[in-house]
Amino acid sequence: MSGRELSYLQAFNEAMHQLMAEDDDVFVAGEDVAGKGGVFGSFVGLLDEFGERRMIDTPISEQAIVGLGIGAAVAGLRPVVDLMFMDFVLVSMDQIANQAAKLKYMFGGNASLPMTITTNGGAGLSAAAQHSQSLEAMLCHVPGLKVVMPATPYDCKGLMAASVREDNPVIFVKHKRMFGVKGEVPEELYEVPLGQAAITREGSDVTVIAYSRMASEALAAAATLADEGVDCEVIDLRTVQPLDIETIVASARKTNRIVVVHEAVRFGGLGAEIAAQIQEHAFDHLDAPVARVGAPFSPIPFSPALETAYVPSAERIAAEIRATMHRPAPGVTV
User: Fold this and answer.
1) pLDDT digits (tens, 9 = 90+) for 51-110
2) pTM here?
3) Bridging pattern class, strands 182-184 and 5-7
4) Residue among 118, 127, 131, 133 nearest 174 (CA)
5) Is the peptide bond before 150 cis (omega within 30 degrees of 0)?
6) What is residue 328's predicted lDDT score, i.e. its pLDDT?
7) Number of other CB atoms surrounding residue 30 within 10 Å
8) 175: Cα separation from own chain's centroid
9) What distance in Å separates the CA atoms of residue 189 and residue 170, rounded to the nearest whole number?
10) What is 235-246 written as a DSSP string?
11) Ramachandran angles phi, psi of 185, nearest 5°
12) Residues near 323 by Cβ (< 8 Å), separated by ≥ 6?
């Protein structure tokens, strides 16, 4: 590490400046990405440096934005297309799921689609039910897509570099509540490999698996529990599709207890898939059922107080870890 600190948003912006300087085929298209630098300032300064040919403000049409990216990618360019909020992925889902994700397969592997879709997900800004969702489980269910959800400034820059250089469609989800989070970021351009999780805290008693904002909440919960004598291992998935099941299973066999955390609705979330794969590959190593922490089955409320109660927190994660530590092994009667 260089010792140089950037915010999460600055790390993303620096990655974009360096990627566009490196490769003339990289361009950005989306609503207000050029003149205003994006709804949250993700693309500030790029218009001045690279001009209107490579920074394109589009009409308000998510289907058209993604369709533009698909066509440009097939033609040999490397587009970064921006959808302001993750919720708007649903407006363009036909282009994403039926065109972008399937194109390489339908051309027998003879076509590539080096397109990155950037968007902003998660709650915490009182942006209400239509601008705060975490919809990664839907995207991960579509073969042909890669889904990236960084939790630190370092990973935000490195994963963005890997995403833009990837020859398959990638959906890159920044978390809106993490824009100001600071951390060490090297000045040079580097890659964090897609599909490779990080063990952000070594431990021996229980494994906590999380990603995006929840990776930070999991570390906070682990710090609290350390004072209580519980040694948590924390895994930040970083990429949720493809899933680094090898790292997960190795940790399950080491600690024997698992808690999976995500901000998305608990029902049908990625936690269920991770729990299923753990029981397939490490069932005999488990001393308790795999626990899951997620949001309730409800739209995200506008009210700040209700939203705070809705989103999983370090306190809720810690409570679930405590419960898991006291659960008996499957088949054991207490």
Assistant:
1) 999 999 999 999 999 999 999 999 999 999 999 999 999 999 999 999 999 999 999 999
2) 0.95
3) antiparallel
4) 118
5) no
6) 66
7) 28
8) 8
9) 19
10) EE-SEEES--HH
11) -140, 120
12) 291
How many whole angstroms separate alpha carbon 303 and alpha carbon 120? 20
Domain annotation for the chain: domains and CATH numbers: 5-184 (3.40.50.970), 198-325 (3.40.50.920)
Give the chain's length: 334
Which of 131, 175, 285, 326 is catalytic? The answer is 131
User: Residue 313 corresponds to which tokens in the numbers above?
Assistant: 């927190």
What share of the chain in percent tops pLDDT 90? 96
Q: Is 285 a catalytic residue?
A: no
DSSP-assigned letter for residue 90:
G
Which structure tokens are listed for 223? 């710090």
Query: CA separation (Å) from 316 to 96, 151, 218, 228, 266?
Result: 34, 19, 10, 16, 13
Chain centroid, CA 236 distance in Å: 10
Strands 116-121 and 170-175: parallel
Q: In what order do the strands lie in the sheet with 198-201?
A: 198-201, 232-236, 206-210, 258-265, 291-295
Question: In 10 A of CB 132, how many CB atoms?
Answer: 27
CA–CA separation, 306 and 290 (whole Å): 27
Per-residue DSSP letter, 126: -
Residue 236's nearest CA partner among 255, 217, 212, 259 is 212
**Distance from first CA to last CA of the chain, Å, rounded?**
49
Q: How far apart are CA 64 and CA 59, in angstroms?
A: 8
| 3-state DSSP assignment of residue 230 | coil
In angstroms, the CA 321 to CA 316 distance is 9
Residues 119, 121: Cα–Cα separation, whole Å: 7
Structure-token pair, residue 262 = 């995500």
